[in-house]
Amino acid sequence: MTHLQAGLSPETLEKAKVELKENPDTLHQDIQEVRDMIITRPDIGFLRTDDAFILRFLRARKFNHFEAFRLLAQYFEYRQQNLDMFKNLKATDPGIKQALKDGFPGVLSNLDRYGRKILVLFAANWDQSRYTFVDILRAILLSLEAMIEDPELQVNGFVLIIDWSNFTFKQASKLTPSMLRLAIEGLQDSFPARFGGIHFVNQPWYIHALYTVIRPFLKDKTRKRIFMHGNNLNSLHQLIVPEILPSELGGMLPPYDMGTWARTLLDHAYDEETDYCPESYTLSVKDLEKDLSPKTMKRSQSVVEPGVLKRPEKVKSEEENTQPLLSLD
């Protein structure tokens, strides 16, 4: 076991070996293989390239070097393309703070049977007069950044439960294709987290309509991990035992305190180490060469195999994608 695996329990070490193909004997070589690819994308400012940081991308892609680098590139490219989202990405930011206080996200104290952290969203809590959908997305991304520091969660991953109880048609009508696409790109395509399940409960018909719209943007793997439970909480409990769920989800614990996770972040004053400003992305390839292996320096003009690093498609048009998905007319 290397120092990079020091935070893992024996059970999680074995899981990383079996499920993720993590090998302590080749760990540093695996990391360097990913780092060596950075020179092929001089258009992206890779603001972190340390071993521990790259390792979380390898774990998220089961140690497939090309896929891990693709995710790493998309992580920073997403931040470059959405600079305003990542300015002042702190728990004390007014919009983020209010979203956190309303339980976006909620984080349960107990892990599921597979060691995964459970995130809960009570959709009806969204107060659209005080903060935006983008603020909610920023709060979720900030929370994931804090939690993904835990190597156990890098291996075991997360589960998301969204309770749509009392989420109104009016609230849903504020969602646009561009908003939902932004969330999908940020969570599915550009973040090194393993999501073992996404559970919808108490969803009304118009949430099914929204899902139909976003479904083409979801990877097959993501689609297979989305469970529509409706009002049947028994089917949820077959996958996540009620002993660790709050009463709102038919669980045996007291009602969830929406401010719990907000207080955790605010008490620790958690924020991203780097403020993603334009100047941060002027990092040149030469600045990175000191981290590259001699083998890569000799082939610095080479290109990673075609198609591996394809960028996400742009949203088709502003007019098309700023219109509400559901009309009140």
UniProtKB/TrEMBL annotation:
Keywords of the record: Cytoplasmic vesicle, Endosome, Golgi apparatus, Lipid-binding, Membrane
GO cellular component terms, alphabetically, are: clathrin-coated vesicle; early endosome membrane; trans-Golgi network
Compartments in which it is found = Cytoplasmic vesicle, Clathrin-coated vesicle; Early endosome membrane; Golgi apparatus, trans-Golgi network membrane
Alphabetized SMART domains for the sequence: CRAL_TRIO_N, SEC14
**What's one GO MF term for it?**
phosphatidylinositol bisphosphate binding
GO biological process terms on file: lysosome organization
In the bilayer, the protein is annotated as: Peripheral membrane protein
Annotated CRAL-TRIO domain ranges read: 96-257
Where does this protein have compositionally biased stretches of type Basic and acidic residues?
Answer: 308-319
Annotated region Disordered: the residues are: 293-329
**Residue runs in coiled coils:** none
Pfam families, alphabetized: CRAL_TRIO, CRAL_TRIO_N
The principal localisation class reads cytoplasm
Read off the InterPro entries from this record: CRAL-TRIO_dom (IPR001251), CRAL-TRIO_dom_sf (IPR036865), CRAL/TRIO_N_dom (IPR011074), CRAL/TRIO_N_dom_sf (IPR036273)
Q: What does this protein do?
A: Required for normal morphology of late endosomes and/or lysosomes in neurons. Binds phosphatidylinositol 3,5-bisphosphate (PtdIns(3,5)P2).
UniProt-recorded name of the protein? Clavesin-2
